[in-house]
Specification:
heterodimer; A: alpha+beta; 2 domains; 7-stranded antiparallel beta sheet; 32% strand; globular; B: 227 residues; Pectate Lyase C-like; N-methylglutamate synthase subunit A (chain A)
Amino acid sequence: MCGIVGLFLKKDDLRPQLGDMLTDMLITMTDRGPDSAGIAIYGDEAAGLKITVQSDTPDEDFAGLDAALSGALDTEVAMRVASTHAVLTLPLDKEAKALAFLEARGLRVMGSGESMEIYKEVGLPKDVAARFGIRAMGGSHGIGHTRMATESAVTTLGAHPFSTAGDQCLVHNGSLSNHNAMRRKLAKKGVFTKTENDTEVGAAYISSRIAEGASLGEALEGTLKDLDGFFTFVTGTKNGFGVVRDPIACKPAVMAETDDYVAFASEYRAFADLPGIDAARVWEPEPATVYFWER
Amino acid sequence: MPVLDMLKTELREVNATLQAAAKAKGNEAFTIENPRGAHAMAVGLDGPISVTVKGSTGYYCAGMNKLATVHVTGSAGPGVAENMMSGEVIIEGDASQYAGATGHGGLLNIKGNASSRCGISMKGIDIVVHGNIGHMSAFMAQKGNLVVLGNAGDALGDSLYEARLFVRGSVKSLGADCVEKEMRPEHLEILRGLLERAGADAKPEEFKRYGSARNLYHFNIDHADAY
């Protein structure tokens, strides 16, 4: 069992409240997943690339990190530290070099992109949200996950969301049964995963399809054919937000839409405090059907 | 009419109050406010009582209901009216997975759509869905009636025993051993009664009846190799 929440704003006036609304939704889903929690938030675009990194010893690892990276890349680097995570902002064309530098220093890269920041840790959702200050974050859309691990260890890297390409992320409720075979298939194409986790394979599959030219909708459609097992997936891209459930659809899902937002949750409880929810269109997404919204 | 507000009253206290009132057989009418998708609302009611839930509920609302009437003005989560014995459960919105599962009696009246596995293993309950139902509905259904004014999803009535399935719209596919059957006058009569009880705006003649071909009832020695 896991909990998923997602919020995609259609209008700009709710943007400053995105983190606040997502945090409440995430905490409501604590009893579906108390092991770990994570959130991907698509905030204001930086002038450049944002790389989110994690360290178990942030005081040591983040001290002087921006200056060191700046020296290595010979460019300006900005850094914002939030607990065990740091978001580094740098020019887009320096991505490959920067990632190699950060990984060589033993830092875990959570994700990168022009808009997306990912924060995830082991612990109760309320504690995870508080240590990163998610409530204060604004943005256009975001996805959160509360984890009750079944397929792999309870670690920071095993928490969701998983990001396998710039500004793309995936959260998952369920378990994939052909993830090892798919991991090998992807590796043959040069797409490598970092963990033993099944969801990361799902994320890598979607990213590789998009890299090959598929739209978000087509990539999600592909999961129905190529991935086996139970899944309710919610995925984020720079401009979009998508949902797909496997054909058996035993993992719960409910959606709500108003003029202001589209919301996703594992259970209706997560919607109870959303503005205008009483008048919202609330429905259960159909099995084997792809839904996505793009701005 | 007593009002229980879930913003001020714990779920256990709400259910204990309702269960005690049901046992007292005073025919009381309760209103529950701010259910906020809570799980296991108004469960185990064992007596004549009327409960109106103003809003949407989570998992297992009105489970094991007996004699009571539970009316949800919003939508219901998975497992609404599971194992109902008698009484009536009315959902104004949609119902999620396995609505009315294993129900022995009473009427489950869903005004919106029901999703997958509606009426799975039903054992005598009557279910009327004014909208559509999802896949694998009435799987291994043993007794009772499932009436659908809209369409049915894949594998309707798979491995069905003796429940009657009435569908007005399309059926995406029939499950193993489920077949369309002749609508005889006694079926029209049953259907008329159910539509009337559920306040459904439809004529019995518009429906098709589906039931068990009864081919799975007995072990077939010719198929021994298949096992």
